[in-house]
Amino acid sequence: QVTLRESGPALVKPTQTLTLTCTFSGFSLNTGGMCVSWIRQSPGKALEWLARIDWDDDKYYSTSLKTRLTISKDTSKNQVVLTMTNMDPVDTATYYCARIGAAGSSYYFDYWGQGTLVTVSS
Amino acid sequence: SYELTQPPSVSVSPGQTASITCSGDKLGDKYVCWYQQKPGQSPVLVIYQDSERPSGIPERFSGSNSGNTATLTISGTQAMDEADYYCQAWDSSTVVFGGGSKLTVL
C-alpha cells in the first residue's frame, strides 16, 4: 500500500526558508523509474507543480521558482525534502507530495499525500 | 512556457453527459491525465495516458486527446461527481496543470 505524508511548519515568516518533508511507504526511491514530486495549491487556486526528484537523483524544477527551490531525498528514511527560500505571503498554499507512476512513456501522479497548509505571515 | 486552458466552470444535469475540455498547442502529441479534487481533499487521478482509467475509477469517466484538445467525459453524471477537475501534461521534463474546471451537477 502506497502512502505519502507531508510534514513541516504551518506558519513561516516572510523571507524565511521553508523546509517540507515527504515521508512515504509502499515503494522505494532506490527502484529504477520511481520519482516523487512536490505540488502546491494556493487557496482557491489551481494546482502548481514545483519540483521532481528521480530514483537516480536527477532533479527538475518549475521554471518560475527554480532559483528558490531545492529538492533532495534520503532513501534510507524514505523521505523527500523540499526547501523554498525567501518565503512570501503569496507562497501561502497547501503543499502536496505525490508519487509519479508510469505506463509506458506516460507519467502521472498516482498517489498523493494529504497535503500540508503553509501560511506565510509576520 | 507551455499552457493548458480549461473552462472555469461546467454545469450538467444529473444523469447527463459532462464534457470538460483542456486545450494546448499540439496537445494531441502529448499524454494527458485528469485529476478530480473535492473540497478539502487531495486530487485523485481519474484518467491517465489520455484515456486509461485507474483501478477503482467508474466506467462513466472517459478521456480523449487529439489535435489541440483533450476532453474528459463523464457519462451519466452523478451528484458525487461534483468537483474540480484538472488536466495535466508534461512539457519536456516539467509538469503543466490546467487552471481547473469546476463541475456543478444541478
Task: Summarize this structure as a short list of keywords or feature phrases.
heterodimer, A: 122 residues, mainly beta, 0% helix, B: 106 residues, 3-stranded antiparallel sheet
Question: What would you note in describing this structure?
Answer:
- The complex is a heterodimer of chains A (122) and B (106).
- By secondary structure, chain A is mainly beta.
- Chain A has no helices and eleven strands.
- In chain A, strands 2, 4, 5, 6, 9, 10 and 11 form a seven-stranded mixed beta sheet that branches. A four-stranded antiparallel beta sheet of chain A has the order 1-3-8-7, with no helix packed on it.
- Chain B has no helices and nine strands.
- Chain B has 106 residues and is mostly beta strands.
- Chain B has strands at residues 9-12, 18-23, 32-37, 44-47, 61-66, 69-74, 83-91, 94-97, 101-105.
- In chain B, the strands form two sheets. In chain B, strands 1, 3, 4, 7, 8 and 9 form a six-stranded mixed beta sheet that branches. A three-stranded antiparallel beta sheet of chain B has the order 2-6-5, with no helix packed on it.
- The chains are: A mainly beta (122), B mainly beta (106).
- The A-B interface holds A 37, 39, 46-49, 52, 60-64, 96, 101, 103-110, 112-115 and B 1, 31, 33, 35, 37, 42-45, 48-50, 52, 54, 86, 88, 90, 93-100.
